[in-house]
Design a protein that fits this description.
This protein is of the alpha/beta class and about 350 residues long. Helices cover about 35% and strands about 20% of the residues. A 7-stranded mixed β-sheet has the order 3-2-1-6-7-12-13, sandwiched between helices. Strand 4 and strand 5 form a beta hairpin. It binds 6-O-phosphono-beta-D-fructofuranose (F6P). The site of 6-O-phosphono-beta-D-fructofuranose has 12 residues, from loops.
Length: about 350
Amino acid sequence: MRIALSTGGGDAPGLNAVIRTAVLAAIYRGWDVLGIKRGYSGLLGEDEVISMTRETVRGIGHLGGTILRTTNRGSPFNYPILQADGSYSYVDRSDELIENARNLGIDAIISIGGDGSLRIAQQLVAKGMKVVCVPKTIDNDVPCTVNTFGFDTAVSTAIDAIDKLHTTAESHDRVIVLEVMGRDAGFIALHAGLAATADVILIPEIPFDIERVCEKIRARDRSGRLFSIVVVAEGAVPIGGSESIIGESLPGQAKRVGGLVEGLAREIQRRTGKETRSLILGHLQRGGQPTGYDRLLSARFGGAAVRAVEEGRWGHMLALQSPHIVTVPIDEVLRSEKRVDPMSDTVLTARETGISFGD
Ligand code: F6P
């Protein structure tokens, strides 16, 4: 048996722990393991395919990033090709990928990625490739699994930032507006905001009214709390408005969401008269060592992925359905959407402790 691993999409803390465990679990069975560099680039002649041994994965379980590198540009089914005039055309290179995998004797692929990678896997399986997926994203927006790995680390990083902002905001009687990642989902903002006791949390699932945000800040002022912390998910939307998009994406890339905090901070200062600062936490949430929770989840996913290959669960994704790791058909995963439920206990608890959602 010869399997190959691929990491695709934005990186997330825990990727290396998945790689390490999957490689060791495969070697334990006497299998051969290859690593496809930079998503599927290694199978398209744009990068390498390397041999994965005990040596390759030694000492990486606690490291952020991915030793296989990754890319969020270009599905093999819709691959951007630069034209002489500087424009891009998009071509289907999946047959080439499958042919190259066959030539390398690859029997099955473990694809570690988010929704983009799941869609690619679904299409590859439809063409006869044997693929099993491991869900990855700091956004935690993959359906059918309680958590994706990387989420806990991102939330911990955001909590640390909010703790630090509290002390400086309080010293200066300021409002500080912090933007966190999450794309179209508000999980990072909600979990970090509640755990670190923010005063306002704005998420895409609950459109906000800036005046309600300012009312909360004024109310805190009146009660003697002269500072406020506003945590904003990058995909948050004002009532009747739309999400903020950061400039142009590169060819083959998804839209880049975010960049709304600067304008929000200006408007809060204008309406409340309070000195307001803003910052974007950005890719700090994607870097660094995975938390213990993410390391364990990643290790469990890596081991379970190899068992799923052994059982021939092609076209399935590993999922945490606590306390078990199960497999779910990718078709089922991609049929639904995972977003914050505005009636969830987390939102209700936040409201009951006085946190405003600006609605
Ligand atoms: O999906 C993970 C994520 O980190 C999002 O939260 C964020 O919008 C996006 O990726 C950023 O991607 P990039 O690496 O292209 O800046």
